[in-house]
Amino acid sequence: MEDFILVIGLGSMGKRRVRNLQALGIKNIIGLDKRQDRREETEKNYQINTVGSYDEAIANYKFDAFVISLPPAIHHIYMKKAIELGIPAFIEASVVDTGFEKMIRDAKEKSVCLAPSCTLFFHPAIKKIAKILQKNELGKISNFLYHSGQYLPDWHTYEDVSEYYVSNKETGGGREIVPFELTWITLVLGFPKRVVGLYKNAIQIKGADDIDDTYNLLMDYGQSIFNLSVDVVSRYATRRLVINGDKKQLYWNWDDNMIKIYDPESNEWEEIKYETISAQSGYNKNITEQMYIDEMEAFLKAAKNESPFPNTLEHDHQVLKVLYAVESSDNNNVIEKL
């Protein structure tokens, strides 16, 4: 029997998840959004049925999984409903702790699979970098230098930033990207022992004048230090990583579709290339759709108990604690232990 999946929220990410599911051959997708224009657009572009309310969805269909693609501040509403019904749920990136501890306990008690997004963990470069680190190919690591920069108004070119959640201080674009990046970092490296950081409202983006658009974190991993810089003020979208080991240096710029490793013995750069499928129209060319498709596939397998999803709500909760520790570090002028 075919699975029925409810995609809750038909904004940019919700529509992407519909595409992901269809790419995986899922046919029985129901879209939920209170906005009629979004429902009509989704029905037209993806030929799926939509509903205007949760009650209508539950009354008319029996679902095998939820995909929660709403603004972060209201994820918890439908996470709780998934737990109540015993339905596996995928949740987009978190930025606010809305009763996570209780939801973790409740989901465990009912053995409900909650799968928080960890999109970049599925990026081909990140997967290769993780293997390089696991094999200790770079030697003893001293530091990681990573810059993730974007320009917030470029996220949705079809609407003003004031029209969606990235303009709110609590769920602002810069604040959201910190856990988005920390998720893959901590899945690969584990959690730091201490953190010190600064965050600022640097340029007052029109329509999102109050958000903190720039974050800088220094994370103590014992032997090594991770320097993470996140902003939504970069006019050119950037992801650049340098890892310094005592044997070799790794460099990755997501523009290049390759990882480069410098070997001082040969005085040469090894180029490790990888393939990506094209980005969806309207997105940065480096936002490969494949990592989102792979993420959905991993969720579907987890929902059927075929294999565990890489991220858990417990891990997601711990990531948010790192974000809050950074803000506390700046607010109180201290180094925070984790």
Describe the 3D structure:
The mean pLDDT is 94. The protein is an alpha/beta fold. It has a nine-stranded mixed sheet. It contains nine helices and 15 strands. It has helices spanning 12-23, 36-46, 54-60, 75-85, 100-109, 124-134, 173-189, 289-303, 313-332; strands at 4-8, 28-32, 49-51, 65-68, 89-91, 114-116, 141-151, 194-200, 214-220, 225-231, 233-245, 249-253, 258-263, 268-273, 336-337.
Please name the defining characteristics of this protein.
338 residues, alpha/beta, Rossmann fold, Dihydrodipicolinate Reductase, domain 2, 2 domains, six-stranded parallel sheet, 9 helices, globular
DSSP summary: helix tally? 9
Instruction: Kindly provide the radius of gyration, computed on alpha-carbon positions and rounded to a whole number of angstroms.
Output: 20 Å
The CATH homologous superfamily of the largest domain is called: Dihydrodipicolinate Reductase, domain 2
How much of the sequence lies in strands comes to 25-35%
Helical fraction: 25-40%
Shape, principal axes of CA atoms: globular
CATH class of the largest domain: Alpha Beta
Order of helices and strands: EHEHEHEHEHEHEHEEEEEEEHHE
What is the count of structural domains? 2
CATH architectural name of the largest domain: 2-Layer Sandwich
Mean pLDDT, nearest integer? 94
Which structural class do you get from the secondary structure elements? alpha/beta
What spatial order of strands do you see in the largest sheet?
A: 14-13-12-11-7-10-9-8-15
Here the CATH topology of the largest domain equals Dihydrodipicolinate Reductase, domain 2
CA distance, first residue to last residue: 46 Å
Number of strands: 15
Q: What profile does the largest beta sheet have?
A: 9 strands, mixed
Unreliable stretches covering 5 or more consecutive residues: none
